[in-house]
Queue: 4 jobs
Job 1
Amino acid sequence: MAPERIVILGNAGSGKSTLARKLGQNLGLPVVHLDLLFWGPDWTKPDPVAFRKNVATAVKGPKWVCEGNYHRRTFDLRLPRADLVIWMDTPRLVCVKRVLIRSWNNAPRPDLPDGCQEKLDREFLTFLRYVWNFDSASRPAIEAERCSKGAEVPVVHLKGKRELRAFMDTWI
């Protein structure tokens, strides 16, 4: 039986949003993009209480795919209800390449609100450092929080296209 409440975690550019859309389409699940709930126009940050309320509402239903980290802000809302956690273990060079390409293209993305286009600017360099250092700087804290809020939830690690295809063939 396919999972009905899926949390997808990983680095920027790892494929979280793309996988969420595919799973949502193939399993008939609503897709929750946390970046879409978090960011306001032109990258404005939300009121933390409002963000949590929006996430709680989005994962209140019986079925969903939720992609994004926001571990300290939302794991307590998502993980206790999740059937499965998927870690996108995409190599950082691939993540950096994808982030560079999508920023260079500067096209609107369905997982971001209007007015939040990635640009090649000074802030982007900080973001690239985050992507490059994700596995050593951010992932340990995300994983520790995942273990404290949802240790009993099964975890699948997907490292590349071959594992992703095998996962989709098995679960979908």
Job 2
Amino acid sequence: PQAMHNSDPMGKTVYVTANGPGTRFTFDRRATEKLNPPRPTTLDGDFQYCTLHRQGMLLEVAINRPEVKNCLNPMANYELEAVFDLFEQDPELRVAILTGAGDDTFCAGNDLKPNEALWVPDSGFAGLTHRKDRQKPVIAAVNGAAMGGGMEIALACDLIVASEEAVFALPEVKVGVIAGAGGIQRLSRQIPRKQAMEMLLLGDTVTADRAMEMGFVNWVVPSSAVMDTARKVAAKLLSVSPNSIRCTLQTIRETEQFSDVVSAVRHPSKALNRVLNSEDMLEGMKAFAQKRTPEWKGR
């Protein structure tokens, strides 16, 4: 910026990036590259803020910051954004499970430190809360406390398996802020309004059983069974047509804007045409008639 004041910038080439910690510009490409945090380009290798385990078509992701209750700082969010970008792009992967390292915390929210820049990548907290057009299901295996941003991450997933010891809260109102990473929007759409208001306005903690009663948790199991249960759910997802899953997720996204059910049903989604003209639909019908397990192609 100082160079812009000290000399006339007209006629100069400016290099601009709008990822990571915000919009940055320089007059030198190499300087711009140095300003941007490194991003993983493959799911192989070591990660600083998470651990990955790949098993066939399933990717298991664990937030790995147990020393701070798996709270996420900007660079952790940035790394997880890259992980889920690569997950979506990998044709061999179809389902992901997200959990937290250790046995008492899924994610306790934002890792706030004085004098540190606070930013999130375009895809949001954990690379999920602001992500658009996801085509593959993500299961939250909530192995402990999911507080604030941690609960918002779980709500952004498609299914939630929770430990009996897990607790959930959106306590932002108690410290003068709001659940701004999707907690307000998702909770008020996923469960009845009054139950959503209870959590959003009071900021109180609820148990896993209460969360399941409210309707935003699918399964509550003993703490020792959380990952095994999540893997069993993943296996069920892997047994059905990946094309049908993609088209179902797309139809949900496209019709969420409609309050009238008939308008939503009549919405001309391209997803339905893709299903009706898909190899998976033909395979499913043949397999049903022949009483055999379908061999999905995902197209």
Job 3
Amino acid sequence: MQFAVDKDNNRVWIDDTNSNQTYFCPYCGTVLITRKGEIRRHHFAHQSLNKCTDSWVRNSKYDESGWHYDWQNEFPADNREIKLEQGKIKHRADVIIDHTVIEFQHSLLSESDFNERNNFYYDLGYKVIWFFDLSDLYESKKISFTAARNGLAHSWKKPKKYFNAFDVETGAIDLFFQIGKSDKSIVQVTHVSESGFARFETTFLMSKADFLAYVGLKNGECKRPQISILADKGEYQAFKKKYNIDLNPQQERAMLSTEGAVLLLAVPGSGKTTVLVDRLGYMILEKKISSNNILALTYNRKACAEMNARFEEKFGRDLKVDFKTINSLAVQIYYRCCKEEGKPRRKLISESDKIALLKEIYQQHSGQRYIAFDEVSKLSTAIDFIKNMQLYGNDDKYFRSNADLSSVDSSIPNLTDMYNAYQNELAQKKKAQSLFMCIGRQTS
């Protein structure tokens, strides 16, 4: 790293160090070694890398290439290698101008490394400008380009999959490539084909000065970095201590990521429920999100009761969150639709009664005496599909049915007759189909 802190916690650049001073890592606090020489670029180093909490140092993922540092050094020292935190996770951004991170990458990342960096910055509210040096790939003809009407059209034989995560057309991320060694060899990606980066479009060639002006550097000056950390670290630490929040860095990151969609994948017993419970408390108590705007869904009553009990045990009974099973939510939506549309509200048929009814109907219309469960299950799936896709034509879906399903592609014999028999039986018993078929307007 190029920056350390002195005993007064001031940032010090490697070239401004004194031999009689001691410098510390801004992430783990340990004493750093200053390495200066003619061959390797001047930098600070740890005596033991695995003790540092800086994720890039600990996992040896930080780009130490000359290309990387040459670009980074175009910017003022105050904008370089900025420490960012999200709970226990600490990273350093190459360059920050205002609320924009600029990442220079000479070597291609793995998909997991890229997603980790990109999501970390996104969670903290930064826009990210990624700049990759792909000049070697262009020189070896693995990527080629031709002139197009509004820029350049590129073909990449074996593109890296993680590039598909870039959403360049919404403006959330800007993506630049250096495609040659000359000054005017930079392009910005403007469009990606449906097949991904096998084919993509860019601007015409830009110079270094063009890129620096684009990111906001003019005459060697730019806006100061805006550092995003937790709104009040003291309050957050008090929250963790009060409610005994003890999560590993990955779990804590999931708890703190409250903007946009979050997908948490983990094996059984790894703490998913703990993370969800802690996240709910964090959203309500720290992010001030009203519990009336939160709905927690799970699959069965036992899991629902367990989540509710664990939430009350940790955060108290005065803090209420609506825990529901998916089926109970479906019933609630069904009843609300019936009320708003002025339709009669009927009792939902249970899954066991549904299977028994379908078996009886299958026997009647197939002539078979013995019906395998797989055949009944196949019929049930077909009926679910018909209702989800609203393929019943002019069917009066609230009462008796006379649907024409001849256009439905199915290997089930007499599907139309069996569907109509099933619907008419439900109408006679004044019942509605159970589970997800009651969601939305499909109240039959």
Job 4
Amino acid sequence: MLRMKSLSTVGLLGTIALGGPFAAPAGAQAIVAAWGNVEGIRVRGEVVPFETSICLADSTGTVRTRTAKERQTPRFARTGATRTITTRLGAYSIVERVEDVRPGEVRLDLALTADSATATRAFLCIDVLRGYYGDVRPGRARRIDLPGAMSSIMRRVTIDLEREATLLTRDERRDGRELRRVLVPITTTPAEQGTTSRATFTLRASGSPNDRPITIALDTSKPGRVWDGLGGNFRIQNPRLDPQVIAYNLANMRVAWARVEMPWRTWHPDSVADPATRDTTQLDPRVRAAMEMARTAARKGMPVIVSAWFPPQWAVVGPLPRSGGPVDGVWGNALDTTKTERIYASITWYLQYLKQHYGVEAWAFSFNESDLGIDVRQTAQEHLDLIKGLGSYMKTKGLKTTMLLGDVSDATPTWFIQPALNDSTSWPFIGAVSYHSWRGWSDSLLTFWNDAANRVGVPLLV
């Protein structure tokens, strides 16, 4: 978690030189994503970019699915220069090995086993930005040659096949980028159950990186924002391992901010009972662990944010999902608006109990990723109503706790905070603007979040 605030001090103009004798060249190395896609090869520290994936296509050659982030449940292991990824895609179990053979050369071994009979063909797909490399013609070939398309940048990628194959090519558009895709067949069709298809590829990259020194001038008369430091999501999900990881981080890093869980479902499972009357020894172990974590962070001088994931059944509309996943494609549950006052009281009781029994006054409160429904689901207007309603309620009970504007799943759902940005009466209850950094790192999106925090006059949490 990153937190930045406005900088009011003015320093001196300085210059920093990068490069020269201090920039040691790095050896070539494949960049391998956890799901198995090779995303380029480093040559003297600079990435020669391309992306491989395993694709499944229909009889027309149209790709229906491919290995990608958050699309499979892969297992990744590394031994020396070799990365091994085991995963599934459609009807195929996949074992992939990527080995750095020598500078600029990578060996890619694939084994695909059909778990059931299928007519779907598997391909190695190679994606490159259009105009970045020379074009590849479809047809029979044993090598894919991708010379740099720009004469000012010397780079080349070649992919050798172990046997001649019929290449297919497609134009694609993904994440706003125009791509050229080359498809190399791995399996024949149809594949019978238990059939294993193997393929080996040799990937080579070369180039002449621009290693001339650069000079950066810092004009400190125009300050930006101060970075407070790294923070942590100190949520106890694995009682056996998480405390060890947290203890190590706290002992070896300067942690500036803390975010802990409010286990709402176990704190207040019954809407009738008053959970705040219990002694600390009567608390559910998960609740006690969360409150003790908050105390540990507060004693180290960190502001503590309390966030809720799983709501109790009485507080929401519809049955809670048994597995914690989506129901009919929809994540999370909406809050029951007929229970609004009880919901405010339940959350406030928790924060008061934390203050009274553990000496921690929460700096801010939020529902985790409520734009997506992990696990309370809200609309943008409901998010605004919560900020004003719960924020006001907590103040009437003597708490200084503020609300997070956002706490959204990614940088992309900017729509979620627009109503609050346009309603300045909500700003006194907002302690920070915040978003998760899973995806959405374009300049325009990051600028939006920075501007939103500046507009409200609060810190920005990432």
